[in-house]
Amino acid sequence: MQTARIIYNPTSGREVIRKVLPDILQRFEQKGYETSAHATTCAGDATEAAQYAIERKFDVVVAAGGDGTINEVINGLAEQAHKPKVGVIPVGTTNDFARALCIPRNIHKAVDVILEGYTQPLDIGRVNEHYFMNIAGGGKITEISYEVPSKLKTMLGQLAYYLKGIELLPQIRPTRVEIEYDGKWFEGDIMLFLVSNTNSVGGLEKLAPAARMDDGLFDLMIIEKMNIAEFVRLATLAAQGNHLDHPKFKHLTASRVKVKTDEKMQLNVDGEFGGLLPGEFVNLYRHLDFFLPEDKFKDGHCK
Ligand SMILES: Nc1ncnc2c1ncn2[C@@H]1O[C@H](COP(=O)(O)OP(=O)(O)OP(=O)(O)O)[C@@H](O)[C@H]1O
Question: What domains lie within the chain, and their CATH numbers?
Answer without folding.
Answer: 3-117 (3.40.50.10330), 131-284 (2.60.200.40)
